[in-house]
Amino acid sequence: MERIILATTSSHRVQAFANLRYDFDAEGSGVDEKFVKRPSNPGELVLLLSRMKACRVADKYKDKSSIVVGFDSVAYHDKKILEKPLSKEEAFVRLVNLSGNRGRFYTGIHIVDISTGRCVSEIAKTEFTLRRLDEGDILDYLDLDSSFSSYALGFNPNRGLSSIFIQEINGSYNNILYGLPLERMPVLLERVCNNNHGTNKLDRKA
Question: What is the mean pLDDT of residues 64-75?
Fold first, then answer.
């Protein structure tokens, strides 16, 4: 049976993926995401970066029977790609701008079966609307919760004050919550690792 390697250092994605009960490991790819002439389209960007991450890790295990999964996520609002905020000040401005507005959250997924060379890619797009936020709530959240820097949106939608920031979600809830459309993963893994005889090469824990 093949093992799964997640090309990520995100603890949120790792914890979420564990719910699928697959045996897996996780390691960072070391890909430089700030290269020149990156795509300005958010869907194209996350798909490219997820592929770069998966392929970088896959290159380390060319002689192994492994399936590598790469991810990348960004938010998009007011014709701007929003990546991880680098400071509380940047996160504050971002949340003020998003307050009462609609945005989109994109996650690219790229899966490589090293033993066969077969690849599967997909983009998950989730629309979200933030309620009208009180600036005091934003400041209280940023003072109390340092995990904001883990999210392209600038907050953790499953913790503390920020759990009431989102008013509406259209699309994958898991995509917003974890940067991983968890409900799509069994489908994509089955697609990439089923051989010509229809036999799945992955086992789940009991």
Answer: 92
